[in-house]
Amino acid sequence: MGSIQALRGTRDILPDEIRYWQNVEAVAREIFVRAADQEIRTPLFEQTSLFERGIGEATDVVGKEMYTFKDRGDRSITLRPEGTAGVVRSFIEHGLGTQGGVQRLWYCGPMFRYERPQAGRQRQFHQIGVEVLGSPSPRADAEAIAVATDILTTLGLKHLELNLNSIGDSHDRAQFREALIQYLTPFKSELDADSQDRLTRNPLRILDSKDERTQEILRQAPSMLDYLSPDSQTRFDHVKTLLSNLGITYTINPRLVRGLDYYTHTVFEIQSSDLGAQATVCAGGRYDGLVAELGGAETPAVGWAIGIERLVILLQQLQKRPAPAIDFYIVSKGSPAEAQALTIAQTLRHLNFTVELDMSGSAFGKQFKRADRSHAAACFILGDSEAAQQTVQLKWLATGDQQEIAQAELPEVSAELRSRIQALRQEH
Predict the structure, then answer these.
(1) I want to staple 138 with a disulfide (CB 3.0 to 4.6 A). Which of 28, 238, 314, 389 is the partner?
(2) pTM for the model
(3) Strand, helix or coil at 171?
(4) Tell me: the pLDDT tens digits for 180-190?
(5) In a 3-state reduction of DSSP, which class is residue 69?
(6) What is the torsional sign of CA 340, 342, 348, 354?
């Protein structure tokens, strides 16, 4: 019988890689705190109708990509394919809008879509996202984009490009939709199969087609920007001005529509060219009608999501994450020494040192080799003699200096030990 492996489209995140993930999450959390964004955690699965109503039944996500099943109560359940709908459902259910002011909510966790797996795109993937609910102001759009930019630049990405567009309100889009259908209909037979299907169901999604012939046809297509009402145009101009004031450069992309039906007005993508080809690392926009669509009061909102997998691939190639800094490695041999070694490890951990305890029971020579490979600052050594005398040998691995310390005195000398470790790390 063969071994059981991870399902296609899922993957294990191993310790060497997880350090990048932890760094992304730590940086994001710190910046969210400074922006007064509050964390929210929603269930991994929801009623299917939430996504059908929220995302739109004509989208590829709902039509082709969702993991949907019946539970034992014969209810239709879906693993969340994105984060916004669940946050909005929670916002409505718990009356967060009645608290007054603006709700700035952020989340982090796995999402699920049945897609063709490729680098940076899995069937279980992870997002960090923000939803700002309760403000119609263009300032909310600009602030959300600024927070995303801060996260990406703090992580070390330098060559970022913000693609920006406005898709107006529902009236603007209805007019543009008709103009687009009118333009594309004579070319229907030349469009790719997906675009032919979308022509009547969701024509704006054709703008996202990767088919070369379809893109060639689209070059002469009407522009969404030509169908913005005066109010929508004024709003978009305000967003652009605010971004310029913040020193955030942008490129207007009139073909940018985003793949979910709930978007209104501002839509954007942040791309990185740090690895040559453009890679979208953050995307989002405004969705003023979604809260009402899901049964809540009319509530303006804007948000975005960062795909962690794709971001980590970028970071892995741009920078090497150092191995976690271990303060002490403990080697021991013999039953009394091994028992004491465990006690010492816990004592040092309670003093806020990072400690790895060798549990192999192998010869001292092999344990010393592992100590060297651990890149610890120092090694504690316990044998029969140290166990009998309740002492421990401390060897500084960089210099070879060695000293004997009474086990009971470790808390008293902890400040001295910490100072020496800091000095050694500054030297290297």
Answers:
(1) 238
(2) 0.87
(3) helix
(4) 899 988 888 88
(5) strand
(6) positive
Tell me which architecture the domain covering 15-169+229-318 has in CATH.
2-Layer Sandwich (3.30)
Residue count (the chain): 428
Residue with structure tokens 């890149």?
A: 375
How does pLDDT run across 388-413, given as a tens digit for each residue? 999 999 999 988 999 999 999 999 99
At 346 the three-state DSSP class reads helix
Q: How far apart are CA 390 and CA 388, in angstroms?
A: 6
Q: What is the C-alpha separation between 236 and 242, in angstroms, rounded? A: 10
Q: Where are the domains of the chain?
A: 15-169+229-318, 328-427
- Cβ–Cβ under 8 Å, residues 286 and 265: yes
Residues 6+ apart with CB under 8 A from 382: 330, 331, 332, 333, 337, 338, 340, 341, 344, 392, 393
Strand partners, 382: 332
The domain defined by 328-427 folds into Rossmann fold (3.40.50)
In one letter, which amino acid is 269?
E
Q: Which two tokens stand for residue 399?
A: 């210099």
